Amino acid sequence: MPSHRQPTDNATTGPRPGVDDAEAALVEHYPRLVRLAYLTLPPALGRHRRVLTAHATVQHVLPGARKSDSRARVPGQRMPSGSAFAWLRGQVLRAALTHDQPSPWWRVRAVRPRTGLPLVVGLRLFPRAGGTDELALDQALSTVSAPARAALALRVLEGLSEQAVRALLEDAGVADPAAAVRTAERLAAHRDGRTGKLLGTSEFDPCTVQTRPTDLLRRRQRSRIAGAAVAIALAGTVLAVSLPEDGPPDQPVAGAHGDGALYGPTGTAALARALDPALLERAPEAAWTDTSRIDFSVWPARGGRTDDTALLKRALRVWGGPGPAVRVSATPGTGTAPPTQPPRLLYAGDLDGAAVVLLHDGQRIVRYAEPVSKRVTPPKRGPLPDSASLPESTSLPDSENRGVPMPDRNAPSLDFARADQADMTTAAALTVIRTPDGARYLLAPWIAGSATRDLLAPDAPARSLGVSADGVTAAVPAPASGGDCVAWPVLVLRSSERIAERHSFLVTDLGDPAPAHLTYTPPPGGGAPARRPSEVTGEPALLSWARTACSLRPLRGSGVRDINNWAFAEQSLPESGGRSTWVCTRADTWRGPGRILVQFQRPAPVPTTPGTVVAEAENTASCGRFGPHILAGTRWRSPSGKWFLLAAGSRDITRIEATGSVRATTSATTLAVRAPREGSVRLSARLTGGGSLRAVG
Predict the structure, then answer these.
(1) pLDDT (tens digit, 9 = 90+) per residue, 463-498?
(2) For 244-286, what is each residue's pLDDT tens digit?
(3) Residue 27: how many CA atoms within 13 Å on its side-chain side?
(4) Phi and psi of 131, rounded to 5°?
(5) What is the mean pLDDT of residues 312-323?
(6) How far apart are CA 282 and CA 231, in angstroms?
(7) Cα separations in angstroms, 598 against 516, 527, 633, 649
(8) Alpha-carbon distances, residue 552 vs 142, 562, 563, 613 (angstroms)
(9) Which of 63, 206, 276, 377 has the largest count of CB atoms under 10 Å?
């Protein structure tokens, strides 16, 4: 069923205001209107086009206001600003909802915004990227219809009632406004009432944007090509006038290649050198055995097509200037610019119907893939000349795309990910390809053994994993990304004894080219020094991750490098309620900022019962090397039905104090006191060194 119908002539949101009233309301509420348009417009436009279209949608509702009948009003009388805003909001909503819908010719000007202005040349605009919560919400919004996105914005940002939202959507021509509102309510309910706060962040604010240049080299190339084309056209006109009627002599057109394509400059000789497949760096097979730097720089080139110059040249050319048919993605904080020097070749081969090339430029991992059935005219042999043209491209790709989705088998793809300061564990594997059966990994040369296990089955033994002669694993099923979380497969890798004796560790797939390294920090021991993160190999570590794994789903595609589960406190619950564990899960990204999630893990008959998330924070040092202190609290209902306030802190806390609806103190690292079920409570703590600490969240 179509999500829209053509709006009727009487589908209005009130009387048309005069142009002065409309302009005053638009200026006053411009950011609100643009945000509404941005959220409603199709995500397929890309962030740059959606920003410009949102502004155009709002700016071009004013011409309709000039058609209002102001003669019926008393001179000098102004419409209430709220009424003018409501009319503008209805017009913006209708224009955004019908952006990609066919309209009758007589309604195009009234409903569709003109796209000539605003116009941005030489720059691309993006709202500032948010955290993993904003990313998860953005991904969820892209899966629902435009009416549902509009309903969510109207409900949580505009604060309208369900009836008012349904009426607005119906006036805007939505065929089933009730279904749109129901979808919006489901989206809002999944985030514990934080949807409005997330939609109000810079991730969804088209009025607060960051700018980046378009491809300067490609832009310069196109300008020169356009100039050459104009010169050739003028010369052709002169020749047409001066040549005899039987036509020109049979000669090739000046400035054309043998196939008729015009030359175009690359911009610099350095770029041409960086894109020359003959200059790709290749590490010796045993380089990793004779160096103290164990990272991607010592990976040898592997795969069956490492000597396929045509494939390598296509991969480098696409990196230098991806065309519109190339799907480009990048983890947050990863640039997509061409290399500045010849990169290192890590892999080139055919897998599951695709030709894949993995490259490393010292800072980034770049993955190029194309269908093996792709027929490409082989380029001429020899090094890339300074004047060779890059592939045609109309614009830079949207570098804010995040994560590595399953590739489109019918089109080439290019994926970027940060890889600077990698080590033995974070440079242990790379995703080569994703299929419906799972992901296949290229293992580091220092990996001597590999297996898989399910984090949600801590008692089950690990299963061996097949690895080909060139280091590529069999398919490993992806962890659950939606719906019921019933399994969480991870890789169990064992390093060579030349690196570390009997060293095994776990990595998990979060949708990025490099899997994330998992670690565990046990609870503090009596009088023992602070413990450091260790590998997830023993029973306590596996049991802790069995109750935490499913909480990692919001981290997909956010560029996570490693994740540590820190059991920072244990607490005996009142009324013989058993012994609980407080766990802080910290996810560090390749770009630096981290996110924490604090869980209260009460006794449970099933070892995989998820803990209760009691607090979370982003861009914080807590629970890490530079933030070793943590305090958190929650309410808990005892077996008898009584409610308690529980709090716990890390080892250096000497006093916990609760104020507000509950007033209590304790000279210990845990607190348990009777408390009402509702009411505001503030928790604070004193540290061994005399400092103070507030509860996270």
Answers:
(1) 999 999 999 999 999 887 767 788 999 999 999 988
(2) 333 333 333 222 222 222 222 334 677 888 999 999 999 999 8
(3) 5
(4) -95, -165
(5) 92
(6) 44
(7) 19, 24, 9, 11
(8) 21, 12, 9, 12
(9) 206
b/e per residue, 532-549, with b = 16+ CB within 10 A?
ebebbeeeebbbbbbbbb
**How far apart, in Å, are the Cα atoms of 42 and each of 100, 148, 149, 200?**
8, 12, 10, 19
Percent of the chain with pLDDT over 90: 43
**CB atoms inside a 10 Å sphere around CB 666:** 17
* Cβ neighbours of 562 (radius 10 Å): 20
Tokens of 240: 């047409």
H or E stretch covering 370: strand 364-371
CB 595 within 8 A of CB 615: no
Rg (CA), the chain: 30
Residues sharing a CB contact under 8 Å with residue 231, sequence separation 6 or more, in sequence order: none
What pLDDT, on a 0 to 100 scale, did the predictor assign at position 587?
A: 95
- How close are the terminal C-alpha atoms of the chain, in Å? 43
How far apart are alpha carbons 246 and 229 in whole angstroms? 25
* C-alpha–C-alpha distance, residues 62 and 51, integer Å: 19
User: What's the average model confidence in pLDDT over 303-314?
Assistant: 96
Tell me the C-alpha distance between 655 and 664, whole Å.
11
Amino acid 76: pLDDT: 40
Residue 233 exposure: Cα atoms within 13 Å on the Cβ side? 6
Note the pLDDT of residue 417: 94
3-state secondary structure of 258: coil
Residue pointed to by tokens 């950011």: 31
Please count the residues of the chain.
697
Helix axes 132-141, 177-189, angle to 10 degrees: 160
Q: How many CB atoms lie within 10 A of CB 522?
A: 17
Q: Does residue 476 contact residue 441 with C-beta atoms inside 8 Å?
A: yes
Mean pLDDT of 160-185: 89
| 3-state helix/strand/coil string of 387-411 | CCCCCCCCCCCCCCCCCCCCCCCCC
The pLDDT of residue 208 is 82
- Give the C-alpha separation, 345 to 509, whole Å: 23
- 412 CB contacts (<8 Å, ≥6 apart)? 314, 318, 325, 326, 327, 368, 369, 370, 371, 374
Q: In this structure, what are the phi and psi dihedrals at residue 73, rounded to the nearest 5 degrees?
A: -100, 155
d(CA 686, CA 629): 11
Lowest mean pLDDT among 27-36, 77-86, 252-261, 533-542: 252-261
| Strands annotated E in 373-527 | 413-418, 429-435, 438-443, 447-454, 463-464, 489-495, 504-508, 516-521
> Using an 8 Å Cβ cutoff, are 184 and 145 in contact?
no
From CA 585, how far away is CA 519, in angstroms rounded?
A: 10
Contact status, residue 358 vs residue 430, Cβ threshold 8 Å = yes
